[in-house]
Each structure stands twice: as structure tokens, then as C-alpha cells.
Specification:
The protein is α/β, with parallel strands linked by helices. The chain is 25% helix and 30% strand. Strands 19-18-20-21-28-27-26-23-24 form a 9-stranded mixed sheet, with helices on one face. The protein has a 7-stranded antiparallel sheet with strand order 11-12-15-14-13-16-17, with no helix packed on it. Helix 1 packs antiparallel against helix 2, helix 2 runs antiparallel to helix 11 and helix 6 packs across helix 8.
């Protein structure tokens, strides 16, 4: 038992007043033995005994009346469990309101976030001035404040653009409440709990902290744009999402619309459409490649947008992208660069992607001054030292080393390279390999294969089928296009980041050298909820975590520290005691 106003218990000292008055009013009269009244002695003794019992009863009633009134003023609280109202002991509480992009989905005619927001408002609305409360949204920031301030924050919360790491958020919240010197410690998780959000990891929850999660709603089908990669005249649009529950029909192609240059004053607008075909039965992955005629747009950076038809989640139906249309590079190749390079440049020249000139030179082992140069290793190993001295004279920090092991190419800068096999290569080494990691554009077995240093680009292999399968691959011409028009110029590939859909450009001086496309995390498109056992396991196990329906959640929160106020019952008891005291006193008189 505890008391809201414990200082009022000092009033219990007043319960001694009736006893003191009783003692002060006692008097023993002198006894005279008159023969005439001896026959009354027996009657008097019987009457005195009854009066003594009534006085003792009055003493008990008056003392109990004072104790009841004092205890009612102190407002005693006792711990209770189960459904119902009641106050609760001081509690440290973190409410996690997951307003990540998926919370904007419409399920059964209602936005998911509206349901979560109502539960969060109810949790914080039931806190008292003795509680310590924090609110966490999808940005992961713990917000403290008064109940009114936090309720106002919840009321203004809308679906955000960041993905919440649920396991990490619960672990941080549990540690925070566990550090508070309060009897109760709870974390309320209000989320749609996507299966992809808790696919890995387990929260480390301290003993004594309760994790209460509202059960997620039912799954709905959805398609969203995961990424848009535009380079060298083609856009690769990848889709992600989830199939509708119970839909066993074959996945249907998804129409995708792409627009570039809409509203641009330079003119020239491209609109293209395609059908993204899902990769397999009941999978959310799909992709489509759309050709883009670069010659129809003026050179420079262009911003476009891809769009899907509206569905249950609108946040992932559109994604902006950036594309640089480069002016045709003045490029040429030396005779020892190889026939495959010469053939690729001829194709690019026919497509007006390059013109004759020596602005960019592709050579073998030589780095002529005054040009941007792309250098293959020499065919003769005896010339390797001379080639290293040549590229060092251009200020390059990289050099060719010993022969490396065969493997497949991996690159985020040039998508056409991924997975292409390399049978022969030199290791690319250099003092700048740690400090200039950003200049490593492709690797083989984790070692640099394509690097850039200033306006010099080095390849680990010759562009010949005796060294690599790249010249015979469909992506070889786009790779040469990227080399001469983008990579050797020092432009970064377009990067992707999480955030509100937009495009931000990166500059170096007055030159634009790259861009970042912002959009929701592709995993937000998969609206499949996690099962209750998986949620419990991810949130620390059954000893600390529970997944509850909305009604059960409302009943169980604070139940570990819920207390009932006995002041009302004590006041009723005081009235009963007062009535009994009045009746006994009146009869005594």
C-alpha cells in the first residue's frame, strides 16, 4: 500500500484525543453505605457495567472515525491487476509510435497510422504527474515532455520517410526506463511490425521491463518502386512489395510510367512506359528496363520521375531520379588498346555518344600528358615497370602489382560490370588505397580492379577476351560509354538515400559532379506483418514481451503497477462510523 498524500498521516495523532477525553472524564464517587439503599446496589452495578461497555464502544467508534478520515485524506492506494481503471504507481514509460512510410497504408478502409496514433494517445493520456514519459517516432529520437506536449506531438504526427529499426528502438527504450528509479518500467510499441523489420536481431531487454506491443493488422497487397538506375541511355526500374493474402493467381505485370524533363524550361521531355514482370509466384520483386534516347535531350543534368498506379500505400508509388546527359566526349584509343575497344568506340560514335578527339584517350600502359586517360595494363609484362612510372608522372597514387586470382567483378558505380568474370588481372596497389577508397569503382575478390586517381583511370585487366569476358558481354559498350563520358571526368554515380522524395545535386566549385536520389526504404513496400511469436522473440522473449489485441493492450498497460484508490471507501466507512457513534451516544444519554 502507498499513499498519494503521505503527510496527511500525521493526523493519526488525533486518534488519541477520544482516549484522553475518556480518561479525563472518569471519576470515582465516594461510597456511603446507607441501609436504605442497599437493595439498589445490585441494580447499580448492573447499570454501571452497561454504561462502561457503551463508553468503550463510543471510544472505539470515535477513534476509528478519526483514523478513517485521516486515511481518506492521505488517499491510500493498493496494487491490483486485471482489467479496469484505477491509478498506478509511478512508472517510466516510452511510447514508440512507428510512423515509418508503411504506416500510411490503408487497411480495411482506415490508415494504419490513425489506429496507432489513437493507441499512443490513450497510453500517454493515462499517465499521471508522477510518471516519466518519452515518445519515440520513426526518426529514433526520444522526446521527453509534459503529457500535454507529447499528446500534441502525437496529434500532429504524419507518416514519415524514415524506416524505424524496431529491435534497436525497443532495446534503447528498455534501457532508458530501466535506468529510472521508479517502481514501474514499460515500453509500448505501436507499429504495423512488418516481417522485414524484425527479420534479424533480438532486443536485449533488462529484467523487470515490460514490452507491450499492439498486434499488427492483416496483410494487404502492395507494389512500390524500389530503385531507379539511369545510365548510358537506359533506365532499370526495380519494384518491391507484397502479394495480397489468399491471392493464389499468377502475378500480373505492373505498368510503370517514366517521365523526364517535365516543366523544364530547356525543353525536351521524355515519357516512356513499360511493364515490370514479377520474378516468380507470390514475390514482390519485379523489374523493367526502359530505353532512353539521350540525343533528344540537351546535355546536362535532368530530373525525372517514375510512377505506378495508386494502391494501398501511396508513399512508394513515385520515386524521383537524376540523369546526366553528357555532351559527346572527344575520345580516341591507341592502337595497342585492342580491337574490342576500337569496335566499342565505333558503335558509340555511330550513336553520337562520342566524337573524334583526344580529350579522352584509352591506352595500354601509357598515360600521355594533357588528356584524361584510361589505362589498361600492357600486354607485355616486361613493360609493367615503365607503365607504372608513366602513370606516376601524372600524379596517380595507384600502380599495378603482382598477378591476382580470377574472380567476378563487383561494382556499384557501373551496373553493367556486376558478375562479369575475370580470368587474368593485375592487383592494383597504392598508398592511396585506404585514404581514397571512394576512387575504387570496381573490385574482383574484394581487391581493386577499376580505380580513378584525378583524371587517370586504371584497369586491372586488358579489355580482351583472353583476360576477361567483359568484351563479349552485352554491357561492354555501355561500360566504355560510362568510362569516357562519366567516370574519367570524375563524376560520381547517382547515389540513393532514405528520406522525403527529392533529388539533391553535389557540386565541386561551379561544376555539378553527382546527385543523390531520396525516397523511402524499399523494404517499406512489403506490408506483410510479422507473426506474434516472431515479434515476442525479437522483443526479448516471453518473459518481457507481449503482443496484444487493442482491447487487451488497453487493459494490460500499467497493470503491473495499477493501484486502486481506497479514499472513497474510507469516506463511506467514516459516515457509517459517525452514524453509529451518534446512535450509541444518544442512547447513552
Amino acid at each position: 500500500m502507498s499513499f498519494i498524500h503521505p503527510l496527511a498521516l500525521l493526523g493519526l495523532a488525533a486518534s488519541a484525543i477520544p482516549a484522553l477525553l475518556h480518561l479525563l472524564q472518569r471519576r470515582i464517587p465516594p461510597e456511603l453505605d446507607f441501609p436504605a439503599v442497599r437493595y439498589l446496589s445490585a441494580a447499580e452495578r448492573e447499570s454501571a457495567r452497561r454504561l462502561k461497555l457503551r463508553h468503550l464502544l463510543l471510544l472505539i467508534l470515535r477513534t476509528a472515525l478519526i483514523v478513517a478520515i485521516v486515511l481518506a485524506a492521505a488517499r491510500p492506494l493498493i496494487r491490483v491487476r486485471g482489467a479496469g481503471g484505477g491509478a498506478h504507481e509511478p512508472t517510466a514509460l516510452v511510447v514508440i509510435l512507428d510512423n515509418s512510410p508503411s504506416s500510411g497504408a490503408v487497411v480495411e478502409g482506415r490508415v494504419v497510422l490513425d489506429r496507432l496514433r489513437a493507441a499512443a494517445q490513450s497510453s500517454i493520456g493515462h499517465t499521471t504527474s508522477t510518471d516519466r514519459v518519452w515518445l519515440m517516432l520513426c526518426d529514433g529520437v526520444l522526446r521527453g515532455g509534459t503529457r500535454e506536449a507529447l499528446l500534441a506531438t502525437i496529434d500532429s504526427t504524419r507518416p514519415g520517410w524514415q524506416r524505424l529499426d524496431i529491435v534497436q528502438a525497443v532495446e534503447r527504450a528498455a534501457r532508458l526506463v530501466n535506468a529510472q528509479p521508479l517502481p514501474g518500467r514499460e515500453v509500448h510499441l505501436l507499429s504495423d511490425v512488418q516481417a522485414s523489420a524484425i527479420a534479424t536481431g533480438r532486443a536485449d531487454v533488462p529484467r523487470g521491463v515490460r514490452i507491450l506491443a499492439v498486434a499488427p493488422g492483416r496483410a494487404v497487397g502492395n507494389r512500390g518502386i524500389a530503385s531507379v538506375n539511369v545510365s548510358e541511355g537506359a533506365a532499370v526500374i526495380e519494384l518491391s512489395g507484397s502479394a495480397a493474402p489468399g491471392d493464389e493467381s499468377a502475378p500480373q505485370p505492373v505498368p510503370v510510367t517514366l517521365r523526364i524533363g517535365g516543366g523544364n524550361r530547356r525543353g525536351g521531355e521524355i515519357t516512356a512506359r513499360g511493364l515490370a514482370t514479377p520474378g516468380g509466384e507470390r514475390t514482390g520483386r519485379a523489374a523493367v528496363t526502359v530505353s532512353l534516347p539521350a540525343q533528344s535531350l540537351a546535355p546536362g543534368w535532368w530530373v525525372g520521375e517514375t510512377a505506378l498506379e495508386p494502391d494501398e500505400l501511396r508513399a512508394d508509388d513515385r520515386r524521383p531520379f537524376a540523369w546526366r546527359v553528357a555532351p559527346p566526349a572527344r575520345a580516341s584509343a591507341t592502337a595497342d588498346a585492342g580491337s574490342f575497344v576500337a569496335a566499342a568506340l565505333a558503335v558509340l560514335k555511330e550513336g553520337k555518344r562520342v566524337v573524334d578527339g583526344r580529350e579522352v584517350v584509352i591506352s595500354s600502359g601509357d598515360a600521355p600528358a594533357g588528356t584524361r586517360v584510361i589505362v589498361e595494363p600492357p600486354a607485355d609484362p616486361a613493360l609493367l615497370g615503365q607503365a607504372n612510372r608513366s602513370i606516376a608522372s601524372r600524379g596517380a597514387t595507384w600502380r599495378w602489382g603482382q598477378l591476382g586470382t580470377p574472380g567476378a567483378i563487383g561494382s556499384s558505380a557501373v551496373q553493367a560490370l556486376n558478375g562479369v568474370s575475370v580470368g587474368r588481372r593485375y592487383r592494383i596497389e597504392g598508398a592511396g588505397s585506404g585514404a581514397q577508397g571512394a576512387d575504387v569503382l570496381a573490385t574482383v575478390n574484394g581487391e581493386p580492379w577499376l580505380v580513378r586517381s584525378g583524371n587517370v583511370v586504371l584497369l586491372g585487366s586488358r579489355l580482351d577476351t583472353a583476360w576477361t569476358a567483359l568484351p563479349a558481354a552485352p554491357g561492354f559498350v555501355p561500360f566504355i560509354d560510362a568510362l569516357v563520358n562519366r567516370i574519367v571526368a570524375g563524376e560520381t554515380d547517382v547515389a540513393s538515400a532514405e528520406g522525403a522524395p527529392r533529388v539533391e545535386f553535389h557540386t565541386r566549385g561551379v561544376d555539378t559532379i553527382g546527385a543523390t536520389e531520396f525516397g523511402p526504404d524499399a523494404r517499406e513496400s512489403d506490408l506483410t506483418p510479422a507473426t506474434a511469436p516472431r515479434v515476442v522473440a525479437a522483443l526479448g522473449g516471453g518473459a518481457s514481451a507481449e503482443v496484444l489485441s487493442a482491447d487487451r493492450f488497453a487493459a494490460e498497460r500499467f497493470s503491473g503497477t495499477r493501484r486502486a484508490d481506497l479514499s472513497g471507501m474510507l469516506l463511506v466507512l467514516a459516515l457509517v462510523l459517525a452514524g453509529a457513534e451518534l446512535g450509541v451516544a444518544t442512547r447513552t444519554r
